[in-house]
Write a structure and sequence with these properties.
By secondary structure, the protein is α+β, with helices and mostly antiparallel strands. It is 37% helix and 13% strand. A four-stranded antiparallel sheet has the order 1-6-7-8, with helices on one face. A three-stranded antiparallel sheet has the order 3-2-12. Strand 6 (146-150) and strand 7 form a beta hairpin.
């Protein structure tokens, strides 16, 4: 028996591959997952990620988050003696952050990471090591081809199916690797600490409703934008006449005028878009989906702008309620997965997320320099991308400013004076 087979024989599967929240046989009792209440009894399955992406709001939320994180620079940083993180370079760790593998740029790699996290709730990243044991390659795996395994002693392993891009060539049996060879980033671990849940778990019903509404609307307008109906004769007619009138009616097609005898009357039987509150239902599904992903609705629907007109405030809200948890999770996962020693770490540069207009940048730079928070050269680099100038490396402050310590020392050095004693008159000045 080979090593992989012997390991598998002593392991138990926690969950089936790609089915977050659906345990394998012998694990938990089955968890009912349904896109809406009563869907299980109606044999309606949960919305698959590839189907959910047909909904424009789902696609927009997933694309927005993944591309925004993909565009943010990811830096190797080191902490100094003051506890401040600064960009750093390392021959061992910097290369993999610049180019994680041979077929993706770092931006594409981060997008793949986030797409898996958003759509499946789990991201599995396989490591490549060199002869030193240093991680030199990272590969985001298909979550549907990874199974989490737990040994009786609590050790975690992963069963991997064939993946040619990741170097897992065609195998007669799945490969089993220990947890140290894989980065497993997950979120919303509501049912098990090793299995995350996608926001689609909560908004799948709204996504399915939106897709159904799109299909019904497409069908409606393909038929000329008129509701379905029936022809009601004034008197009883035979079946032959019914068949003839029906064929004539359907052969006309949309936009044609029918001339029928027998004093027939057309009566619509389907609900119009206005009666069905189509616009209100579409807005509700969009708001529900955006809320599940944490995206401000104004970034999905431009007609629903926030009460403030400051784009920076909107971007800060987007960062705090949506992106921050993903950014922190990726940084933490990479720190542990790359086995970075002290003082190294990874950090996203948020400056590319919030773009200020020229007036706002100039005001921010001026106030930072006037307050002594930044030196002129630091403000030039941060807000304008400009190089240093002579004499601009030190922060400036006005000369009349005194520290609290200096003011306290001056008060202690001053002689005590009774408040009831009048001040002595100035001495006479003798002019020679």
């Amino acid at each position: 028996m080979g090593l992989a087979a012997s390991i598998r024989a002593n392991l138990r599967a926690v969950f089936a591959p790609g089915a977050a929240g659906t345990p394998a046989r012998g694990a938990w009792a089955p968890i009912v997952r349904e896109p809406y209440t009563g869907a299980w009894q109606a044999n309606a399955e949960a919305v698959a990620p590839d189907v959910a992406l047909l909904n424009p709001t789902v696609f927009r939320c997933v694309s927005l988050i993944s591309t925004d994180i993909g565009k943010l620079p990811l830096n190797l940083v080191a902490v100094d003696a003051n506890g401040i993180w600064h960009p750093a370079q390392s021959n061992a760790f910097s290369p993999v952050l610049r180019r994680p593998n041979a077929y993706q740029t770092i931006g594409q790699f981060k997008e793949s990471w986030m797409l898996s996290r958003l759509l499946h709730g789990n991201t599995y990243v396989l490591k490549d090591r060199d002869d030193r044991g240093v991680v030199v390659g990272l590969h985001v795996l298909d979550p549907g081809r990874v199974k989490v395994l737990v040994a009786p002693d609590g050790a975690v392993y992963y069963e991997l199916q064939t993946n040619d891009l990741a170097g897992l060539a065609s195998m007669t049996s799945p490969a089993v690797v220990p947890a140290r060879e894989l980065i497993h980033d997950r979120w919303n671990c509501a049912y098990h600490p090793l299995v995350g849940l996608s926001p689609l778990y909560a908004c799948g019903g709204a996504a399915a409703q939106g897709i159904a509404m799109q299909g019904a609307s497409t069908s409606f307008f393909s038929g000329g934008g008129q509701p379905s109906g029936m022809l009601i004769p004034a008197t009883d007619i035979d079946q032959k006449t019914i068949d003839r009138l029906s064929a004539t009616w359907h052969n006309l097609g949309p936009g044609r005028t029918a001339i029928l005898g027998s004093a027939m009357k057309y009566e619509p039987v389907s609900t119009t878009a206005a009666d069905a509150q189509w616009a209100e239902q579409a807005a509700w599904t969009a708001t529900t989906i955006a809320g599940a992903f944490g995206v401000p609705i104004s970034m999905v629907d431009s007609s629903q702008q926030p009460p403030y007109a400051n784009s920076e405030a909107s971007a800060l809200q987007y960062h705090s309620q949506c992106l921050q948890t993903h950014l922190t999770a990726i940084e933490t996962s990479l720190d542990a997965g790359l086995e970075l020693p002290f003082p190294y770490g990874t950090e996203f540069d948020l400056d590319d997320l919030i773009w200020m207009d020229t007036a706002t940048k100039t005001k921010a730079a001026h106030e930072a320099i006037a307050a002594g928070a930044l030196s002129p050269n630091e403000a030039r680099r941060k807000y304008f991308g400009l190089g240093p100038v002579p004499g601009g490396d030190s922060p400036f402050l006005q000369s009349q400013y005194y520290s609290l310590e200096a003011l306290a020392m001056r008060d202690l050095a001053a002689p005590a004076q009774d408040a009831n004693t009048p001040a002595a008159p100035p001495a006479d000045t003798v002019t020679p």
